[in-house]
Specification:
Blueprint (H helix, E strand, L loop, with lengths): L2 E11 L2 H11 L4 E7 L4 E8 L2 E8 L5 H9 L2 E9 L2 H10 L10 E2 L5 E5 L9 E5 L4
Bound molecules: zinc ion.
Length: 136
């Protein structure tokens, strides 16, 4: 398993528009993509900061995972995504080491990436996303 960099940091927010204003007006970043991921029940907004991206997540439904996260813990850092060069191998590697997988197989996430989540129970409390850009 080879992890190359942090691909993005996912942040759960209540209001995408209001949050985008903070990142643009206070931090001086530029939102370059807004995308809805229907199977995750979220709308996402992306910013680039060097090689790393910030992904804001707003729930599109009261029963979505991000809505539940905010209900329990409030707005804040939701997950960290690591870029790997082979997501299927990386998942197998994690599975063999007893890591609890949320996604048994990779699936399509925002920005055309192939992604899979590892359960925070197995990762010392951080919801961990693995992703591979197969279009590269
Ligand atoms: Zn993500």
């Amino acid at each position: 398993m080879q992890t190359t960099h942090i691909e993005h940091i996912g942040i759960a927010v209540k209001d995408l528009g209001e949050s985008i204003r903070f990142y643009e007006e206070v931090l001086g970043l530029k939102c370059y993509n807004i995308e809805e991921v229907t199977d995750q029940k979220v709308r996402t907004a992306f910013f680039r900061v060097g090689q790393v991206k910030v992904e804001l997540l707003e729930s599109t439904s009261d029963d979505g995972p991000v809505a539940k996260f905010i209900e329990k813990r409030g707005e804040g850092v939701h997950h960290i995504a690591f870029a790997v060069n082979n997501i299927d191998q990386a998942l197998e590697h994690a599975r063999k080491r007893g890591v609890q997988l949320i996604d048994q197989q990779s699936r399509k996430g925002a920005e055309g990436l192939d992604i899979a989540f590892l359960h925070p129970r197995s990762t010392h409390g951080v919801l961990t996303e693995l992703c591979e850009d197969k279009g590269k």
